[in-house]
Amino acid sequence: MNFKISKSITAFSSLMVCTIFLFHSCGDGTHKQNETKEVEKMSNATKANEIIPFFQHWNLILGDGSNVGKATDYGNERFFYTAKDEDAEWVVFKTPNAGNTHGTSNNTRTELAQLKKWSATTEAKMNATLKVMNVSTTGDARVASTFSVVVGQIHSADGHENEPLKIFYKKFPGHAKGSVFWNYEINTAGDDNSGRWDYSYPIWGYDFSVVGTGENTYPPEPEDGIALGETFSYEVEIKDGVMHLKFISAGHETKTFTKNLISSEYAERSDLPEQVENLFVPIGQDGVERKNAYDGEGLFFKLGCYNQTNGKDPKVNKVWCSGAETHGGDVQKQYADGNYAEVWFQSANITIPDDAYSNAGYFQANDGLSAKTVYPSEVIPFMDKFKILLGDGTNADDLVDYEHKDFFYTVIDGTRRWVVYKTPNSGVTSKNSSNTRTELHEKREWTPEEGGNLTGTCKVMQVSVSGDARVAASYSTVVGQIHSGEGHENEPLKIFYKKFPGHTKGSVFWNYEINTAGDDNSGRWDYSTAVWGNDMSVIGKSKNDYPPEPEDGIELGEEFSYEVNVHKGIMYLTFKSDKHATKTFTKNLIASEFVNKSDLPAQVKKLFVPMGQDGTERPNAYSGELNYFKQGAYNQTNGKNPETNMVWCAGAETYGGDIAQQYKNGCYTEVWFVEATVGPSVPPK
């Protein structure tokens, strides 16, 4: 089977004339009208396949996530239509920063995807002539994908479904010229694809790795770049396992490249290029490639407008999450103020081998995937062993195939799916607590002598941005606990994350709360131990005065893991995070070290004793008491008056308990878990 397609010249039976305003972005993020240009947007009587007659060989994915199938005699005024200027007739692909995505992608697209796939060892070709008319005008300049669009791809339909070719155009706001570059994404070795990364090659202008030094600070404009509206062409040829690329534009040097697709140059950790070490390794994407790269997998071409700018928070992923304006997904508002990508194609053709075969499996796996509910229990299967309390005070006992869109659900960060626990500064709390939580509560109860084991791999995405810096609990959340179900119902373990406003790095620490001797529990207190960064006792001198940022701290969005193993009355703790020293601790839960007033640590005398919390502990601590694990987001920042309690009453903004307003203004906590286990104790190593 051999398809050779070229531009066809078509008579236009009817045209409607519109004025398209071409804008340039200013440094302040606004738009100024640069010029007007008369173009003719063709009526529905003229179809895209009358300009480029090859749409019977592709499915068309739109910016609303839908697969409309073959685009023959098809048009859509929001995403896919035709236009004519004084130079040529064009097929227009357009998509906003936020709509519905296809598959597991972070990004919207109006893009053709080939109906058949083929092997890297055969012969296949794709050519196109195009011009990029718009890229998003908002986003975080420090994020590599911001202000860019992919205009052509090779995609794998098998394995990890990675992409051996992505052809980009990127232009920073205020620049007249942008860059054209292409990326190769490794076909990651093993079953875990979260370590995948791209290596980028500049064509005209910069490569992918050139980013801004601040959110709105841009690198110098590339001297040899391509302007919006400037035509260029690409040619992609696959032959005997090698990809040959050619890029042509009038007034620019023609560039050619080759890349072997069936023999990797990145099969060892030492092979990672410096560009990757700088861009991807800091976010944990440091995988190696299969030795035979994409050999044995079905590949297919994609062509169109794959917007790489999205509204996701950069702390989710500092390479792919742009933090751009999305107007809540309102497509028309995004189009009105430049928050979209638009690419015009004048011509295109493909040649594929006779033995190309159906790509239906790719579409079956990805069509509508972003709209399908993936429950937390599908990501972390231990949910049957827990019940949950949500940030609005409601409970759920059966967590299999359960979610709540405001508090407990799943997301994809670009590489993996996570379970999200989210809760405001003020909602409805459990008894005896000042704080809201979206937190799991283990159904099984056990004594310290019987023991148990809990693990979690998480990243904290948000802590409250308001509070009183003198209050130890401000700006913090608990991500794991052991809780007693008897006696005073105190907590022998609370694992905290805390970050002060304006700091990049926060602290991870764990607290032990004494099991107070006697019937009066009002004298109870916590002793805090630093893991990375500071312990709980490091506070500000005034409401808005913060201590120095911890040098060895953990950032929002930075992954870490913990293991809690209670075995024969001893609690063993292990904390791990890439680029941080692994920390281990032990604590006896059945024999107290705090039975006398003289045993009170200096930290406790500083923090708790001034408030009258100066109790001592039962000699046998938590021995014989039933305990259970808790995991999730237990927000420690609340709106209570600090004068009431200078350790636990944070004085934060709560907007009268309006949860939507708290979420909007950063007065909440959000924790993502990608892995977790619960079970019996194990003998310590």
What can you tell me about this protein's structure?
50% of the residues are buried. By secondary structure, the chain is mainly beta. The strands form five sheets. A nine-stranded antiparallel beta sheet has the order 1-2-4-5-18-8-14-15-16. Strands 20, 21, 24, 26, 27, 28, 29, 30 and 34 form a nine-stranded antiparallel beta sheet that branches. A hairpin with a 6-residue loop joins strand 27 (493-498) and strand 28 (505-513).
In short:
This protein is mainly β and 685 residues long. The N and C termini lie far apart (62 Å).
**Topology, number of strands:** 35
Q: Describe the global form.
A: elongated
Whole-angstrom Rg: 28 Å
Structural class: mainly beta
Order of strands across the biggest sheet? 1-2-4-5-18-8-14-15-16
Please, what is the average pLDDT?
A: 91
List keywords for this structure.
elongated; nine-stranded antiparallel β-sheet; mainly beta; single chain; 5% helix; 685 residues; disordered N terminus
Topology:
Elements: E1 15-25, E2 31-42, E3 58-61, E4 80-84, E5 89-96, E6 109-114, E7 116-117, E8 123-134, E9 148-156, E10 165-170, E11 177-185, E12 198-204, E13 226-227, E14 232-239, E15 242-248, E16 255-260, H1 274-279, E17 299-307, H2 331-336, E18 340-351, E19 357-358, H3 360-366, H4 376-379, E20 386-389, E21 395-396, E22 408-412, E23 417-424, E24 437-442, E25 452-462, E26 476-484, E27 493-498, E28 505-513, E29 526-532, E30 554-555, E31 560-567, E32 570-577, E33 580-588, H5 602-607, E34 627-635, H6 659-664, E35 668-679
Antiparallel strand pairs: 1-2, 2-4, 3-6, 4-5, 5-18, 6-17, 7-19, 8-14, 8-18, 9-10, 9-17, 10-11, 11-12, 11-13, 14-15, 15-16, 20-21, 20-24, 22-23, 23-35, 24-34, 25-31, 25-35, 26-27, 26-34, 27-28, 28-29, 28-30, 31-32, 32-33
